[in-house]
Structure formats: C-alpha cells, structure tokens
Design brief:
Blueprint: E1 3-8, H1 15-24, E2 30-36, H2 47-57, E3 64-69, H3 73-79, E4 84-89, H4 92-109, E5 112-117, H5 127-135
Parallel strand pairs: 1-2, 1-4, 2-3, 4-5
The structure holds adenosine-5'-diphosphate (ADP).
Length: 150
Amino acid sequence: MKKAVFPGSFDPITLGHVDIIERALPLFDEIVIAIGINADKKYMFDIEQRKAFIEQTFKNQPKIKIDTYKGLTVDYCKKNNASFILRGLRNPADFEFEKAIAQTNRKLSGIETIFLLTSAETSFISSSIVRDIIRNDGNASSFVPPIVLK
Ligand code: ADP
C-alpha cells in the first residue's frame, strides 16, 4: 500500500493545497493530511478549526485521512507506516527550503519526499497572504475552500 503524509500548517487550507492533494490522489492509496503542532508558532485558526476545514473539504474522499502531530515529521511517518512525504513547490524559494528538509529527512529515515509542481492557476496562493486578506476584511473567496469563510 502506497501511503503518503502531506504535512503542513494549513493556517488555513488554500486552493493551492487542494490542488496538490487532488493531483496526488492517483499516485497513492492513502494520503494523510497531517497538521503539525508547533508550540512556538502563533496561528490564526486553532487546531480544531484547521482540522474541521480540511475534513469538510475532503468529506467525500475516502483515500484522505486527517490527523495532527507533534515532533519530527519522519517520526510521524514511521509510526504510521508512510513511506512518502508529499510537498508542493511554487517557486525557487520553496525549492531551496524544501531541498534541505527533504535531504535531511531522507538521511534520517530513508523516507522519500515527492514534490508536485503548483498549477499555474494556484501558484501565487499562500496561507500567509490569505491571513492578511481575512485580517483586513478583504474577500478571500477565490483562494480558499468555501468552508474557511463560513
Ligand atoms: P508549512 O508551514 O509546512 O510550509 P503550509 O501549510 O504553508 O505549511 O504548506 C504545506 C505545503 O503546501 C508546502 O509543501 C507548501 O509548499 C505547499 N503549498 C502551499 N501553497 C501552495 C500552492 N499555492 N501551490 C502548491 N503548493 C503549495
């Protein structure tokens, strides 16, 4: 069984994340969307809200599971028998950042990171810009699943 973990903050989930997840579905038998909990980070949406947004978005997709985790992503993968980490790439900055993490994770655990290139339509979308729009009462409906703005 090919199982991948898609780790992230998802604060909140955007249409960029949704695009990567939907395009990865044919590649894996199961994808666990794993929301990392970092005690030092300040989030706009609490963990229950972020989880509920993702659950609602994929409620009709049996291949997708949603979970939260603390600690190293590779430890979470090993505990859950996942051999792959899924990540999205938008630009050279993502590449440089992700390259170091992926190589470190492979050295630590042998787990391979699979990258999907962002779609042209969603390549500019980021959770941080979406948070800015929401904070300033702008209209973020083109960037996130509808449930995030309910
Ligand atoms: P993290 O804090 O781990 O970067 P994010 O929720 O910001 O968590 O992102 C999770 C993953 O989704 C990362 O691999 C990121 O590159 C990817 N991602 C975010 N936005 C997009 C997008 N618009 N297109 C493709 N991938 C994206």
